[in-house]
Amino acid sequence: HAVIATLLCVSTMSVAYAADGPKLVGQRVIMKLGKDKSIVYVGDDGVSTMRLSPDGRRLLYLREKIYRTPKPATMPKVAPRHAEEGCEVVLRDLKTGKDTPLPIPALHNEKFATAWLSMTVFDPAGKTIIAPVSLDENKNGRMDDIKEKCKVGLYDIASKKLTLLAIEGNATFPAFHPDGKTLAAVVAKMSGDAMEIDVCVSPVDKIKPRWLTQKGLVRSFCPTSNLVVMLLYTEGEPPTPGDCVLYDMTTDTVEAKFL
């Protein structure tokens, strides 16, 4: 999902004789990264995080967008409004080249957006996207850090309909299980200056969150079981990343720790 080359291409793989090695055929450019300055890059490394749909028909990526926010009450009246950068989530049809921004407020920075996009955001059929959706209480079109409420949303690509689910915090990182029937969501909640990070799992068709005892960030799913790779968070303010473990969501237990 991380693209480092100056050209992002889609290709089919053709396996030739061993002497020749694998060959890429049918290659075509779908995005010229070096020339599109509005694409969100991670730092100054020229790396952009994108996600290809399971059917290979669409590309989900992040685009920079400037938002104007009201100035704080403590600032002088003559001060201009703040200009804030956000990460707009955009879906590109690879056949037509048409871009469709998702109808959600922009994510507040590249680290938050990249953490979410690196998860399993498409369902197995490539028809639905699961995403964090800020409630955008100040109506500036952007998730303002973790100061506003945020829900988990399902975006139907064909109908362009967004459905908000009953999973809410100050920040959410939702993902699909590979079977498409289960979702997992990392939910961060603020209580004063303290932050709590919890994880829940739920059926997709009937939302009923079951909260796990461990706190952490779900990184990837086993395609044939309820095992996940989870980056645990340690207690403290703010919470910091700790051990990386193999976690069983069914039994709610750590099965193994990665050294």
Mean pLDDT: 80
Number of strands: 19
Q: Helix/strand/pairing class, anyone?
A: mainly beta
Distance between the termini: 25 Å
What share of residues are in beta strands?
over 45%
For the largest beta sheet, what order do the strands appear in spatially?
5-6-7-8
Rg measurement, Å: 20 Å
Shape: globular
Helical proportion, percent range = under 10%
- Major sheet, described briefly? 4 strands, antiparallel
Helix and strand run = EEEEEEEEHEEEEEEEEEEE
Question: Which spans have pLDDT < 50 for at least 5 consecutive residues?
Answer: 1-18, 78-82
- Total of DSSP H or I helical runs spanning 4+ residues: 1
Description of the molecule:
The protein has one helix at 110-117; strands at residues 2-3, 7-14, 23-32, 48-49, 51-52, 58-69, 82-93, 99-101, 128-134, 150-156, 161-169, 171-176, 182-191, 194-203, 210-211, 216-221, 227-234, 240-248, 253-258. Residues 1-18 and 78-82 have low confidence and may be disordered. The radius of gyration is 20 Å and the shape is globular. Strands 5-6-7-8 form a four-stranded antiparallel sheet. A four-stranded antiparallel sheet has the order 12-13-14-15, with no helix packed on it. It is mainly β. Helix content is 3%, strand content 51%.
